[in-house]
Amino acid sequence: MAINSLFFFSFIFIFILFVSFTGTVISGRKSTYIAYNTTASIVTDKINVHLVPHSHDDVGWLKTVDQYYFGGNNTIRGACVQNVLDSTIASLFEDKNRKFIYVEMAFFERWWRQQSDSMKIKVKDLVNSGQLEFINGGMSMHDEASTHYIDLIDQTTLGHRFIKEEFGQTPRVGWQIDPFGHSAVQAYLLGAELGFDSLFFARMDYQDRAKRLQEKTLEVIWQGSKSLGSSSQIFTGIFPRHYDPPDGFTFEINDVSPPIQDDYLLFDYNVQERVNDFVAAAMAQANVTRTNHIMWCMGTDFRYQYANSWFRQMDKFIHYVNQDGRVNALYSTPSIYTDAKHTASDQWPLKTDDFFPYADHPNAYWTGYFTSRPSFKRYVRTLSAYYLAARQLEFLKGRESSGPNTDALADALAIVQHHDAVSGTQRQHVAADYALRLSIGYDEAEKVVASSLAFLTESQLNTGWRNSSATFLQCPLLNISYCPASEAISSHGKSLVVVIYNPLAWKREEVVRIPVTTERVLVKDSSGKEIESQLLPVQNGTLSMRNYHVKAYTGKSPSKAIKYMLAFSASAPPLGFSTYIISSPEQIGRGSTVSTVSKPEGGANSTIEVGQGALKLRFKAADGRLTHYINTRSQITTFTQQSYSYYTGNDGSDKDPQASGAYVFRPNNTFPIKSKNQAPLTVVRGPLLDEVHQELNPWISQVTRVYKGKEHAEVEFKVGPIPVDDGTGKEIITKITSDIKTNGVFYTDSNGRDFIKRIRDFRSDWDLQVNQPIAGNYYPINLGIYVQDNSTEQSVLVDRSLGGSSLVDGQIELMLHRRLIHDDMRGVGEVLNETVCITGDCEGLTIQGKIYLRIDKPGEGARWRRTVGQEIYSPLLLAFTEQDGDSWTNSHETTFSGIDPSYALPENVALITLEELESGQVLVRLAHLYEIDEDKDYSVKASVELRKLFDGKEIYKVTETSLSANQERAKVEKRRLVWRVEGHEEKKVSRGGPLDPSKLSVELAPMEIRTFLIEFDSGVSII
Fold first, then answer.
1. Are 483 and 514 contacting, i.e. CB atoms less than 8 angstroms apart?
2. Which helix (H) or strand (E) holds 787?
């Protein structure tokens, strides 16, 4: 033992002496400074490995957006985007060949405003040289399931505007790497119409990916719109795995991948070993990819906080791999990669429709998030519409350089489009942070609306100046029947003035409903003519919900008890307002009609019919079930039922530990919810509308409304608190059942735009192995869903994004609410169990919402879906003030329209953006609402006269731009890449022609959106 030890230590001594005197290890090589050659570019006859450094930075998820930025709350996760950007920028300065892409402008804008002028100059040099490239460029990487197309456009425009103003750059590439499924609208609208040359993402169904890997079809030409076809197609790349590097090539400071050790003086020298690993991984990916170009995403969530640990290794790999010579490695970006693919001049497979639903293994369909956090989804949708109207009014008054504006609401709405925000997949404290930001934005925008209406209603004096002294109140809690302004109507001589603004560019007539505390009310229009009105009694459930939630939101209970909801018919001109006066009548007997209320009784076969106009609904008196939908105008009489059920959420305790959670919908069993009351129906009748009130149990009730002048039914539901004291999570659905023979076919919208054909248990791109027959047939719904056969077409529209399907022929199913008690193990680490609290006393979340039902003859439903869909998205905006006698109406403008009085937009076109920018330019977007072959009259080109759209304004200059208004459309079309599609004969697409410079008329083809920057003659006022 002693001899062996002596020998060992002697060997070590000799080894140390050898190293000390010679500076070599065995080979005789010296350890010296190595200048790594990172200048590599594309080599035509080799496999080119495009290394794309990136960090995927969620704009809120486990931490709030600001906590992620400055590195707060690190007990949850050690993530600091400020460190990412500081470190990465410093590393880019060190080597001009290094590159980095950045996506989320919400973070970059925060970082940018904290930089010195000298640093900004240096960073601009990085951008101009192509070292730092902005990809995607929206404020967030938006969700694609739970988002409305107008919100997607707005948030992308905000980010692109920042990039253009600060750097003079226009992003070329879409980078939607993390959203949980991908929409057709993303491809053509938020891709090609932005001027993007390509789109890349990571998440797709595991069965679809397996087939595409085998067939080398991960890269495709995606035509998302059947109406716009090849004119709006985009090259789309799907990563062969996730959006991280191949195994063994992640280099954050705590990652376990072996770094290259190339110092001969150190142990574990491994250059050739790591080069071999690199080449093997490259060859494996090349075997599933067309052409000799492959992309490696060098990064993942919140990486590059110590950027040098990544760049040092990539420098070495580029240097040694290229010395090896078997493949070629280079610093790259998705733009460079796209150009290389295009230069290859290959043919590419064609992809149509979308990539929903998404599953990452047999029992994990990510279709639960379509409905998760339904009240938050509704809040986002409500404020989206409010933002649209507020920007219009801001323009109509004239944007001011100081004072309230809509910017805070714009920023908040942009952030919540993030794929872990409106999706409902964030932690609870993050959801509260999002809601707070929206609330702050609303408060600011509310001032804009109030001041704009005050300005527009003031009578114009001889000097042409308007002294806007009126004070307008609004009622953001009107959805829970709370409106202090309308509840203050009294007999003390003061009247309530209601100004009703219409954000649509066509005239509309609707029934308005507001809470009042007395039955002595009279409604007149601005000319003094009495308007027919109706008082609807307030049910106990409505009162209790109002009282509880008003205290929860405001901190105090309502000061008055309401007795009725006052309903009256109102009309408003396009892009304008009308005024109505509500007062207490001086004479007994005058005023609103009090509705009749009855609780029908009868035998098993007795029925009740409601409806004052063409539409009638028939119910069974015994159990309250809807049985028939009758339209006397269209001669439709059809069997229809509506019911509620719930799925029990899987708890993950079986062989597969997958539970139902915020992302994943994995139901166990289905249970019908039946009425437990002896008298299930209360029928309310009146001259304007009829209502049927039903309470199924203590936590589900609904009111079905049939308006005299409408041919659709409105169902207002209240669900919650969902009981979970039995230890079981529940997912609440409603079913609308008919005898329509649908053969497994139904149609759902894509982000509120195109409708896509769905076939139960079927995918167009692969032979579907059905593992989850319920969750695997769920799709996102933002506008509506419909089914049809040869004789009937049944449509349902929604007031927020949610999940739905048609699991049985003739039946439409919508998921309304979810409350679960297990996490689905997809990273959020928190159960989806929302509560509302008052002074520490919490109960499960109650939601209230509406769905809209209509049945037509085949081909006639599109007109209703498109028109009423616009009205649901952009409701009338109500503002309230008071007057003594007729003092207000005699001294104010009571009607107004921002467009030529003789003009209205065509019924197949919507004005989706009207915004005055800080530059003084006005951003205008016009959207054709119909697809090709959707409607026999409206699926045609439409023309809009811009001059008549701006009454009293003289147009000086019009520039047509890309969708996000960051570049001229003509330049986009000129440089658009042309791709060859495999085995596909291109169909000619007819789009709207160029702007007529003399008439200033714009032509729109079906599904086309056209964007303009307009400059007006400053000497001509709009008023």
1. yes
2. strand 784-788
Instruction: Report the relative pairing of strands 234-238 and 359-361 from DSSP bridges.
Output: unpaired
**Beta carbons of 717 and 849 less than 8 angstroms apart:** yes
Whether the CB-CB separation of 637 and 856 falls below 8 Å is answered with no
Quote the crossing angle between the two packed helices 105-112 and 407-415, to the nearest 10°.
130
Contacts of 967 (CB under 8 A, 6+ apart): 170, 195, 961
Nearest by Cα to 930 from 100, 227, 148, 7 = 227
Q: What DSSP state is assigned to residue 288?
A: T
Which residue, 253, 342, 331, is CA-closest to 291? 342
Tokens 């509704």 label which residue?
Answer: 378
Task: Specify whether the CB–CB gap between 155 and 142 falls below 8 A.
Answer: yes
Instruction: Give the span between the Cα atoms of 338 and 284, in whole angstroms.
Output: 20
The residue behind tokens 């980078």 is 175
Helix 374-397 × helix 149-167 angle, to 10°: 60
Burial profile 542-581: b = 16 or more Cβ within 10 angstroms, e = fewer: beebbbbbbeeeeeeebeeebbbbbbbbbbbbbbbbbbbb
Place of tokens 């940018």: 112
Pairing of strands 847-856, 793-798: antiparallel
H or E stretch at 706: strand 700-707
- CB-based contacts of 839: which residues, under 8 Å, 6+ apart? none
Tell me how crowded residue 462 is: count the other CB atoms within 10 A of its CB: 5
> Do the bridges between strand 1009-1016 and strand 955-961 make them parallel or antiparallel, or are there none, so unpaired?
antiparallel
pTM given for the model: 0.95
CB 638 within 8 A of CB 738: yes
* Token pair listed for 978: 């042309």
**Cα 273 to the center of its chain, rounded Å:** 47
Phi, psi of 849 (to 5 degrees): -160, 180
Give the closest residue to 814 by CA, choosing from 853, 785, 844, 792. 785
Q: Which residues pair with 685 in a beta bridge?
A: 596
Q: How far apart are CA 197 and CA 335, in angstroms?
A: 8
Per-block mean pLDDT, blocks of 10 residues, the chain (1023 long): 47 42 51 93 97 98 98 95 98 98 98 98 98 98 98 98 98 98 98 97 98 97 96 97 96 94 95 98 97 98 97 98 98 98 94 97 98 98 98 94 93 98 98 98 97 88 50 93 88 84 96 93 93 92 90 89 94 96 81 89 83 95 90 95 96 94 97 76 95 93 95 96 96 97 98 98 97 98 97 97 98 98 96 92 94 96 97 97 85 93 94 95 98 96 94 92 97 95 84 90 97 84 45
* Cα gap 424→542, rounded to integer Å: 26
What value, to the nearest 5°, has the Cα angle with vertex 895 and ends 893 and 898? 105
Longest dimension (CA), the chain: 122
In 3D space, the residue among 239, 349, 343, 341 whose CA is nearest the CA of residue 299 turns out to be 239
- How far, in Å, CA of 234 to CA of 465, rounded? 51
Cite the beta strand spans of 820-963 per DSSP E. Answer: 835-838, 841-844, 847-856, 877-884, 896-897, 909-916, 922-928, 942-945, 955-961
Query: How many beta carbons lie within 10 A of that of residue 898, not counting itself?
Result: 24
Preceding peptide of 357 cis, ω within 30°: yes
The helix or strand, by DSSP H or E, that contains position 110, with its residue range, turns out to be helix 105-112
Cα gap 815→798, rounded to integer Å? 11
Residue 162 DSSP one-character state = H
Distance CA 163, CA 171 (A): 8
Q: From CA 573, how far away is CA 398, in angstroms rounded? A: 20
Contacts of 35 (CB under 8 A, 6+ apart): none
Residue 218: which of 231, 199, 233, 232 has the closest Cα?
199
d(CA 219, CA 293): 12
Q: At what angle do helices 149-167 and 407-415 cross, to 10 degrees?
A: 110
Distance, in Å, from the CA atom of 643 to the CA atom of 735, rounded to the nearest integer, reads: 5
- Residue 199: both structure tokens together: 């789109």
